[in-house]
């Protein structure tokens, strides 16, 4: 078949360069094959049976092969695109999971530090979380035997058990930044007014209010 070489060439061009160049090669190949390989050679003036067969069979077979390869290329492109999107989403989810795990660990470490910090500073009465991200859990029992439980967002200090029960009840609802006066036990049954200050500070784990005895 005179156009077999050009059919293979068009198929290769289609695979590597796409549909447009392949159709161009097919048309150029049709002209060259008819001019050089179909008798009478080097002559376009005579149209006979051989020219008609070449003009029908060669484009039909070549277009069929080109269309088949084009469909395969598009299917390959879609598969590569889906694989790329899936890989990208997996990497995004992995980064998000790692970020959440790191943030959760950091917040947990901050909470653990804030829960233990008041016990090592005599001037700190309590640390109160001010937003949902902060969550410090502590149960407090007063020395008098009456159990007063702070909200789950509070961490008491070592001096908290010496605070008057009425002041504890007031702190649960009205603790704000600024000056506060609390009654702290100074003897067996006596309480002494003490000036305290509430200071707000912000961390990556949330906003907190530290109530401490004023210097």
UniProtKB/TrEMBL annotation:
Listed GO CC annotations: membrane
Domain Sensor protein KdpD transmembrane: 5-79
Keywords: ATP-binding, Kinase, Membrane, Nucleotide-binding, Phosphoprotein, Transferase, Transmembrane, Transmembrane helix, Two-component regulatory system
UniProt-recorded Gene Ontology molecular function terms: ATP binding; kinase activity
Gene Ontology biological process: phosphorelay signal transduction system
Topology with respect to the bilayer: Multi-pass membrane protein
Compartments in which it is found: Membrane
Pfam families: DUF4118
Principal location: membrane
Transmembrane segments: 12-32, 52-69
Protein name from the UniProt record: Sensor protein KdpD transmembrane domain-containing protein
Species this protein is from: Paraburkholderia phenazinium
């Amino acid at each position: 078949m005179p156009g077999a070489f050009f059919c293979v060439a068009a198929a290769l061009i289609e695979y590597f360069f796409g549909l447009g160049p392949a159709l161009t090669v097919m048309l150029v190949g049709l002209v060259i094959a008819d001019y050089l390989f179909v008798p009478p050679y080097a002559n376009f003036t005579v149209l006979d049976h051989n020219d008609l067969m070449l003009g029908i069979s060669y484009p039909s077979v070549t277009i069929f092969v080109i269309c088949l390869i084009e469909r395969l290329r598009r299917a390959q492109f879609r598969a590569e695109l889906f694989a790329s999107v899936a890989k990208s989403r997996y990497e995004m989810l992995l980064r998000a999971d790692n970020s959440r795990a790191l943030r959760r660990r950091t917040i947990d470490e901050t909470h653990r530090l804030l829960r233990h910090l008041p016990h090592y500073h005599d001037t700190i009465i309590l640390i109160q979380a001010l937003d949902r991200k902060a969550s410090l859990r502590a149960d407090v029992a007063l020395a008098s035997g009456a159990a007063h439980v702070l909200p789950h967002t509070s961490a008491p200090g070592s001096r908290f058990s010496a605070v008057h029960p009425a002041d504890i009840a007031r702190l649960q609802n009205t603790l704000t930044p600024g000056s506060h006066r609390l009654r702290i036990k100074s003897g067996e049954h006596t309480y002494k007014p003490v000036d305290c200050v509430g200071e707000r500070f912000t961390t990556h784990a949330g906003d907190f209010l530290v109530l401490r005895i004023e210097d």
